[in-house]
Amino acid sequence: MSSTFPTATIVGYPRIGPRRELKKAVESYWAGRTSAAELETAAAELRASSYARLTKLGLEAGNYSIPASFSLYDQVLDTAVTFGAVSDRFKDLYDADGSLGLDAYFTLARGDSERQPLEMTKWFDTNYHYLVPEIGPDTAFSLANDWILRDVREAVEAGYTVRPTLIGPVTFLLLSKAADESPAGFNPLSRLDDLLPLYLELLGKLAEAGVEWVQLEEPALVADQAVPESEVAAAVERAYAALAAEAQNRPAILVTSQYGSLGSLLPVLAGTAIDALHIDVFKGSVPTASELARLGETTLVAGVVDGHNIWKADLGVAAQKLTLLEGTVKNLAVSASTSLQHVPHDVEDEQQLDAQLRSWLAFADQKVVEVVTLARAIGNPGAIDADIAAAAEVLASRAGAPGVNRAEVRARTSALSPSDFTRGDYAVRLAAQEEALKLPALPTTTIGSFPQTSAVRSARARANRGDLTAEQYRQLMQDEIRRVIDLQEELGFDVLVHGEPERNDMVQYFAENLDGFDVTVHGWVQSYGSRCTRPSILWGDVSRPAPITVPWTQFAQSLTDKPVKGMLTGPVTILAWSFVRDDLPLGETANQVALALRDEVTDLEAAGIRVIQVDEPALRELLPLRREDQAEYLEWSVNSFKLSTASAAPATQIHTHLCYSEFGAIIDAIDGLEADVTSIEAARSRMEVVHDLEAHGFRRGVGPGVYDIHSPRVPGQDEVAELLEKAVQHVPARQLWVNPDCGLKTRGYTETEESLRNLVNATVSVRSQLEAPVS
User: Fold this and answer.
1) What are the backbone dihedrals phi and psi of residue 125, each rounded to the nearest 5 degrees, phi first?
2) Which of 30, 497, 566, 687 has the highest local Cβ count within 10 Å?
3) What does 632-654 look like in DSSP terms, one character per residue?
4) How do residues 748-759 score in pLDDT, each as one tens digit?
5) Longest dimension (CA), the chain
6) How far apart are the C-alpha atoms of 264 and 278, rounded to whole Å?
7) Contact 480, 454 (CB under 8 A)
């Protein structure tokens, strides 16, 4: 076991590839166009190119400074498969030798015709989604996959000494859910003592393979849990006492804590016999000497570079933090605050951006350089004085740039009063909307987007290149809107959508039409699996120069007598799914965006649109991980939504949509949005949310999803009806809407049409049961 840790490292790197090579390889395998061997080859090439790139950027190839943080789909799923942590409903996926192979791995992620995949939810306060392991009291753990050993051997053969990574045992169990077969009150953390021997066995195998450092990720320790903190602390002590024992027969252990401060768990971890501890010193404060007193020889890895946003670091501030720590601990190293999987690869790929804006940015590659630069200052504080001065010049340039501070925008937010956030009594609105819309029981709708065909994407690309005139592009989009309206009419939906063919992304589309934003060409970030997004860059004060959605929605409404929803993305989601300026409080920026959306709502109403959906799928995403910090966030986030919608007339029905979050934790805030109808993810979690709705006494319209659109499987009519029947048992039928979990953009038309037909037919069946006389 080595006791020397590199002074410069990162704890994770983008794994999708600069041009989404992983996405293309994985989806080609799913489609049957390539073999498993070809997928493995593509993944190996991507790993090797990442190691080569990181070495070129300054991380050393032979000293464990490079993490092997690659995943074909999700790092939590990787850990579940490694330790055979699968519930009874997936037991048949094991091969004869007791292993879980590639197809089993993807079945857990995507489901199959007979079963739904693992539930998916947000990864802390990021826009990444992880798969939730299902663990019961009798789940039989085993070393069911050796990909981690394969990756180590592969790297060595290529000339790189990498640090294999796994989710740590405490975080893995805290992020898991009780399997369906579990008794009431079962907590997966109770299985810690059963899981630890497998971690020990794997550490031994890694040591036998010559590995000297391993990374165990424990980000759940920076967030408040349902489990009492005393139980978490006891689990941490027990886990790392066991894993750090037998020091000569295991690799050295780096424990990472990302996304916030460890708080009272810092001295707990510092007091174990781990060899290095990573802490987030960007979002969290610099620990005191007393908090670090138990570290001893353990290396402190200080995450002083922001791994979660794209602005260049203030190297002067970062260096000051390092100086404070250097006087407190014996061994110090530098890193980013989080894995760099949350930012794009390389800002140099974005030559189309304004040069001044580009000079303010640091993507993953630039952040690696910042880490390497700061490491030079350890023991030699004057070594980077020139770099600190250059960073200060960038910050000054940004602060004084045109558009960063616009007096007319600031004046508008400053003039807001309480009446701007209030829409009036819900009972009055409900009566007005029932009279205006005359909808049946269990009204059916979709979330907004319909499948984006290759023809639609091609038309948008040709229009961007100038190969189509504005009129030609408008005609092609109107043809697609007509197709979507006709399909919904034929299927029998009650409230229609125009399908959003003109939108590349639900946030980017608005960013392209609002002042204060810019967008990238290659700035892809993994959201989940093969799904990637390009977060927009919110760099200045925000305003709306002209209507954005009105012409498309107005055209769609002209094609039908049924109501068509106007579709907007809410202010919190626009912030959460963008890289947001860090020089202004988020609440102020949210209000700027909300006022731009408020103007759009007004124009939609004037165009005759009577149902308007303002999506907030990311409402919980920005929720602080510590309860003590949540009230302030919930106040400004809820108020920004109300600001965007409060101008609507009582007869205008305001919808919102949320997805893949633990709704029970913020149901008061969801209620506080005062939307007339809220649609939420529920199919993949098998309608768990209805218990929260019932317990809360939620009284407005609600559409718990009955069709999981993040999987290619088609839910049968009986399956949808079963979910609806469960919903009716817990939520009054007069409040219920029927809809998919999320938008349909990523699905194909064949599966979508079949799924939506089953949804409508199931609704008709359940309606008939509601209307049947009681004998």
Assistant:
1) -105, 40
2) 566
3) HHHHHHHHHHHHHHTTS-TTSEE
4) 999 999 999 999
5) 87
6) 15
7) no
Q: 129, 498, 710, 730: which is the annotated catalytic residue?
A: 710
Euclidean distance between CA atoms 691 and 689, whole angstroms = 5
Rounded to 5 degrees, what are φ and ψ at 559?
Answer: -95, -5
**Residue 644: which of 606, 588, 592, 594 has the closest Cα?**
594
Cα separation, 662 vs 688, whole angstroms: 10
Tens of pLDDT, residue by residue over 387-413, are 999 999 999 999 999 999 999 999 999
b/e 276-307 (16+ beta carbons within 10 angstroms → b): bbbbbbbbbebbeeebbeebeebbbbbbbbbb
Radius of gyration of the chain (CA): 26
C-alpha span between 668 and 49 (Å, rounded): 47
- State the pLDDT at residue 268: 96
Determine the angle formed by the axes of helices 586-606 and 407-414, rounding to 10 degrees: 90
Give the Cα-Cα-Cα angle 7, 12, 18 (nearest 5 degrees). Answer: 120
Q: Which helix (H) or strand (E) holds 755?
A: helix 749-771
- Going through 42-145 in order, the beta strands assigned E by DSSP cover 66-68, 120-122, 129-131, 134-135
Question: How far lies 305's CA from each of 223, 281, 299, 339, in Å?
Answer: 20, 8, 18, 11
Residue 618's pLDDT is 87
Identify the residue whose tokens are 């530098």.
334
Name residue, tokens 């409060």: 646
Task: State mean pLDDT over 461-483.
Answer: 95
Enter the DSSP assignment of 543.
E
Q: Is 129 an annotated catalytic residue?
A: no
Sorted by sequence, the CB contacts under 8 Å of residue 648 that are 6+ apart come out as 423, 601, 605, 612, 654
**Would you say 527 and 659 are in contact if contact means Cβ atoms under 8 Å apart?**
no
- HSE (CB half, 13 Å, CA atoms) of 498? 28
Query: What is d(CA 492, CA 772) in angstroms, rounded to the nearest whole number?
Result: 21
Sheet holding 515-518, edge to edge: 515-518, 536-543, 578-580
Q: Which H or E run contains 104? A: helix 102-110
Beta strand pairing status for 531-533 and 536-543? unpaired
Three-state helix/strand/coil letters over 120-162: EEECCCCCCEEECCEECCCCCCCCCCCHHHHHHHHHHHCCCCE
Number of H helices, E strands in the chain: 26, 21
To the question of pTM greater than 0.70 for the whole model, the response is yes
Beta-bridge mates of residue 613: 567, 655
Instruction: Give dist(CA 500, CA 447) in Å, integer.
Output: 11
Q: What is the C-alpha separation between 578 and 270, in angstroms, rounded?
A: 35
Structure tokens at 166: 């796994």
Strand, coil or helix: 113: coil
Q: Is 553 helix (H, G, I), strand (E, B) or coil?
A: helix
Q: Are strands 515-518 and 536-543 parallel, antiparallel or unpaired?
A: antiparallel
